[in-house]
Every structure is written in C-alpha cells, then in structure tokens.
Amino acid sequence: xxxxxxxxxxxxxxxxxxxxxxxxxxxxxxxxxxxxxxxxxxxxxxxxxxxxxxxxxxxxxxxxxxxxxxxxxxxxxxxxxxxxxxxxxxxxxxxxxxxxxxxxxxxxxxxxxxxxxxxxxxxxxxxxxxxxxxxxxxxxxxxxxxxxxxxxxxxxxxxxxxxxxxxxxxxxxxxxxxxxxxxxxxxxxxxxxxxxxxxxxxxxxxxxxxxxxxxxxxxxxxxxxxxxxxxxxxxxxxxxxxxxxxxxxxxxxxxxxxxxxxxxxxxxxxxxxxxxxxxxxxxxxxxxxxxxxxxxxxxxxxxxxxxxxxxxxxxxxxxxxxxxxxxxxxxxxxxxxxxxxxxxxxxxxxxxxxxxxxxxxxxxxxxxxxxxxxxxxxxxxxxxxxxxxxxxxxxxxxxxxxxxxxxxxxxxxxxxxxxxxxx
Length: 423
Hints:
Helix 5 (360-390) runs antiparallel to helix 6 (396-421). Strand 1 and strand 2 form a beta hairpin. A 7-stranded mixed beta sheet has the order 14-18-11-10-20-23-22. Strands 1, 2, 5 and 8 form a 4-stranded mixed beta sheet that branches. It is an alpha+beta fold. The protein is built from 6 helices and 24 strands.
C-alpha cells in the first residue's frame, strides 16, 4: 500500500469513527441496508459500536486497592495513524464504574486504530493502555494511585554537554526526573505551580528543546516542571532538555547547581577537538569536587576526543549542589580590549551619525526581532530532529553533525543579542 492509499484509508477510518450512530447502525449484523439503497462502502458496513464498562480502583501507599468513589472522570481515546480522532467520556458512579457507549471497531481498518483510556483523580491524569479490540461486554479495570505533593521520592539524573565558543560555553543539559515511590507526585500543586529546577550560577538564555511541552516552563534562569510524576513502575521518567550559555570569566568555572530533589547520577562531557566554525581547538578540562566521581578521556573513531566526568554511583541529597570545575577556559583579556575599542568607536558613531538617521532605533528593534525569530526557529529544529531520531527517521550520526552546526549558529545569535541588549 503506497502513501496515498494509506492516507485515504486513515481519512476513511476517521470518518467512520466520527459517524453518528444513525449512520453507523447499518454495520450491525441484525440491520442490513435496503437493497434499493445499494448498501454502504465496505469499511462503513463493517463498523460496529460497543458499550465498554470501566471499573476504577484506587491504590494506596501500602499497595492495597479500594473501590473508587463517584465523580471520577474517565475517557477512552480513539487513535488513528498516531493522531487522536475522538474521546468517549464517562463519570464513575457510587460503585466506581461507568459505561462508555458507542466505542467503534472495524475489521477493515482495525490495524490502524488503537485505544487509550485514562482517568482523572486528585488533579492527576492516569493513563491506561487498552490492548485488543473492544467487544460487547468488554470490561476495563483501571488502577489510579493516591496523590501527594511530597517530593521526597523524586530523583534526577543529569547529562551535561558543554561546547566552547570564543566568548561563552554552550551547554546542553538533559535532566531525567524519576519517582521511586508508591504515590503519584503532583508537581503542579507545589508552591509556585511546579518543581523549580535551577540552572547553574551565571547561566544565560535558557531555552527548552520542546518549547510546546505544557508541563515545562522557563522562568528567569530556572526550568519549572508542572506535570505529575506517576509511581515507580507505572509512569516513565520526565525528560527536561534545556540549552543555555555560560559566559567566560576567569580561566576556570566552578559549577554549582543545587537541586530540589535527590541527584542519582551526573555525567558531564567537554570536547578536546576543534569545534565547527572555531579557529582552533579549545581543550577544556574537567575537575571533580568533593570526591564526586572521576574524569576519564574518551576518543571516538572519527578522531573526536572528549573528557567525561562520571559520578560513578555517587548521590546527592536535596539541596546538596552538583559541583565540579571546568578549567582551561579562554581568557577574556582580548575580549575586554575589543569591547573597549568597540565602545569608543560606538561613541564616535553616535556623535557623528546619531542625529542624522532617527530611524536607527527602529532598525535595531527589527534586527533584534529577526535574531530572536531565527533563534526560536533553530531551537524548534533541534526539537524536531531529536524526535526524528527517537522515531528512527534520522540517524544519530547525521543528528550529531547537524546539531553541532545549529549549536554554533545559536552561539552567534546569542552573542549578537547580548550586544544589542548592551550586556
């Protein structure tokens, strides 16, 4: 089946699933279309609708389950071609059950359709993967969990990649949040509306890879996680991916990043080889602090060389900062000199030309808007590329090559924005 035929089939499936019961009833075995009408298309004629009973149970911290109370919202989503087509809603009664009516099935296109059920309890949505095909009399048993705002069961793993530029370090920071406890943790109910994940001291311009993720938000130099962490063995880790810069100062930088949850592991990576568009290699060095893991060299087959700091199983308690040092950073002496020269030339330019072209300010605003637009476009491109790799649509080798080029361009954009902002 070619792409056009697949798209037609998916469109037909969507029409079939959204068809009103008055039309869909012709698919039943007992009801046949009038001969004069010529019948319906096969995919519509084969469709059936079913009533599915959903039973909801609540699991407490000790592992015991109990009947759910009345008023819990339940739904089943119909997924066709990876996109949601329709939701069928219900609400539990006093016996903790509800009936979802009119759930469709169709053997003609069943391979393209999947079903997902979910329930909302104490401000948290609990998903349930429905396997198989609904039939008349199908019963779905869902388990939701008691909810807390205590973050003691949460922990985080950090993967930190740093790439030197002539004026700053570009940092790609991946944080994976885990819930190791038996209760769901509703971070959205915490003070401030989420779990604050501060970036290290001096971080600038934090940008999310997935800027459309409703559970993540950047405020200042912190990322706030506003979702819920499902219990151990039920939900997947939350994935936070953020890019920011660290301006150069002295020849070494002391990384200091306290986290609100336990740190279960850290890996930091710096390159030793020349970066794309760089004039020369800047071989940075990592130094452990407080006996936190060790540093080892890593060499890739393509002659790329790195230093890797691995915490090697060391953990940190909430509030205890991640600490290590980055040394052999480029000095700022020449940079400061050029900034001084540039400042003098700028003053001269204002004196000579400042009163001749009053539209310059408008041009600067327009230039800044163009830079911001390009920056946002590149960040979105990185997010799309990462999703393509996860889906197997892009090779990791190609992703790494293109990511380095995009990162280098982002550095240039950040520097240009800094100059326009007078920083």
